[in-house]
Amino acid sequence: MSDEPAPEIQTRTLKRVGIGAALVAIAIAGIGIASRSSATRDLSETAQSNAIPAVTVVTPNRAGADGAGDLVLPGNIQAYNSAAIFARTNGYVRRWLADIGDHVQAGQALAILDAPEVDQQVAAAQADYQTALANQNLAKTTAARWSNLLTQDAVSRQEADEKAGDLAAKTAVANAARADVKRLGALQGFTRLSAPFAGIVTSRSAQIGALVVSGNAAAQPLFTVSDVHRMRIYVRVPQGYSAQVHPGLHATMTLPEYPGRNFDATLTRSAGAVDVQSGTVLVELQADNGDGALKPGAYAQVSFPASGGSSTAVRLPSSAVIFGEKGPVVAIVDNQGKVTMKSITVGRDEGAQVEITAGLSGNEKIINAPPDAIQTGDRVEVQKAPAEKKPGNAKA
Question: Are 93 and 193 in contact (CB under 8 A)?
Answer without folding.
Answer: no
